[in-house]
Specification:
alpha/beta
C-alpha cells in the first residue's frame, strides 16, 4: 500500500519502473524517507556544468546549487535579459562563483550546433 513504510527496496524499484508511481507525490513520498542531506555535500571544483532552462525555476535553482558547490556553471538560456538576470542573482548569492551565460535555444538544432 502506498501510504505505508513497509516496502522493501525491490518494491520501490518495481514501482519506479512502472512510471505510474514514480513521478508525483507518491514517488516523492517513497523516496524522501531515504534521502540523506549529506549526499549533497559534494565538491565540484574543476567541473563544468551546463544547465538548460537556467533563467528561472528549477533550472536556476540547479545552477545556483552547482555554483555553490564550486562548479563552473554555464547557463544555457534562450533570452539574454532573463539569462543575465539569473547570472546576477546566482553571483550575488554565491560570491566568487564562476557563472556564465550562453544564448542557446535548445528547441532549435541549429542553435545547439552553433553553441557546440
Amino acid at each position: 500500500m502506498l501510504g505505508t513504510d513497509h516496502r522493501s527496496p525491490w518494491q520501490d524499484k518495481l514501482l519506479d519502473r512502472s512510471i505510474l508511481f514514480s513521478f508525483g507525490r507518491s514517488g516523492f513520498e517513497r523516496h524522501r524517507k531515504r534521502f540523506n542531506p549529506a549526499d549533497l555535500a559534494v565538491d565540484l571544483t574543476g567541473k563544468t556544468c551546463l544547465v538548460t532552462g537556467a533563467s528561472s525555476g528549477l533550472g536556476e535553482a540547479t545552477a545556483a546549487g552547482l555554483a555553490a558547490r564550486g562548479a563552473q556553471v554555464q547557463l544555457l538560456c534562450g533570452e539574454r535579459e532573463r539569462g543575465e538576470a539569473a547570472c546576477s542573482r546566482i553571483r550575488a548569492a554565491t560570491p566568487g562563483s564562476m557563472v556564465s551565460l550562453a544564448l542557446v535555444d535548445v528547441s532549435d538544432l541549429d542553435s545547439i550546433e552553433r553553441y557546440i
